[in-house]
Amino acid sequence: MLYNLVNGAAVIAGGLFGLLIGRFLPKKTGETLLKAMALGVMYVGITTMISEANALTTLICLALGVVIGELLKIEDRINKLGEFVENKFKKNAEETQMNLAQGFVSATILFCSGSMAIVGSLQAGLTGDGSTLLAKSILDGVVAMIYSTTMGFGVLISAIPVIIYQGIFVLAASGLSDLLNEMTIATISTVGGIIILGIGINMMFETKIRIGNFIPAVFIPILLSLLNII
Q1: What's the confidence (pLDDT) of residue 132?
Q2: What percent of the chain has pLDDT over 90?
């Protein structure tokens, strides 16, 4: 769990640094940084999608995951949680550069949906090797710094679901060591890459793909593996 806590701390540290320097950056600079990050996120999504996963299995996982996410209204619930936190902790929401809920949702999905979160947590839980999570911590810290510059305090709060989400995998990984094969991990990586690409598209083109409702798709490969389907 140590590596997981380091990841959460990196998000908070990067976010705080971004908040401190954000006031000194011109608005256009912040907007350009966000667009640059959108391109970077899209690149990460595309490269993560490249794996040995079966295309049909990936589509099935996406379809099932999105249906579950829509039924559970996951993105709406995440938005409401962000708004609740905003009402509790922000005395003057107009001072923030962007809505706190948007920062919380975007950062949470970005930090939790990628293959590094899944594979790194499984690696730490199964073998005790935290190198992947440490690398992810550095990346998340940099991203949190840039995100908080334009999206505000919500990015820091995303450290909480990051720790919980990855912690579940770390704690459960030892019991899944004999059940998750290479194809399952590859499918998880591909699905995560597609989700990241969707985040980048939303950031770049200001579309309204409800990416939060895609999150269950990351867990479908595990279910299929337990059922000996993949």
Answers
A1: 75
A2: 20
